[in-house]
Design goal:
The protein is about 15% helix and about 40% strand. It is globular.
Length: about 130
């Protein structure tokens, strides 16, 4: 069985990651994998086409987890587990029409204040 996060996993360099960082007023506001961003949230930093991002929102951590769990289900995923810790939520899901594709979303508060969160989207594809 082979598992990878992307088809280019072996060729990704630190320079590739650094050059993918977007900050400022022109940051792309889209979430990856055709998912939605929490309504009213603003992306303040984005890297790797949205696989990692920092958002600003008045929503709580549990509100973000609830929204993104529902968004996954509306986009053809089945939520397998929502793990809530003191300062982090992890949502694990599997694509309904392709059981070899799993997607995890991790959300945690940023060190930039109460209304900032760091989100990481990781897709695993097994064969």
């Amino acid at each position: 069985m082979t598992t990878s996060c992307s088809s280019d996993a072996d060729t990704l360099s630190a320079e590739d990651i650094a050059s993918s960082i977007e900050v400022g007023e022109d940051v792309d506001q889209a979430a990856p994998y055709q998912l939605s961003l929490y309504p009213g949230a603003t992306v303040t930093m984005r890297l790797m086409d949205g696989l990692g991002m920092q958002i600003s929102t008045e929503a709580s951590l549990s509100e973000l987890a609830s929204f993104h769990s529902g968004d996954l289900e509306q986009n053809g995923y089945r939520v397998l587990a929502v793990t809530e810790g003191k300062d982090e939520v992890k949502i694990e899901s599997v694509k309904l029409d392709d059981r070899t594709t799993k997607l995890m979303i991790a959300i945690k508060p940023s060190d930039q204040g109460d209304s900032h969160f760091v989100m990481t989207f990781i897709q695993f594809v097994s064969d």
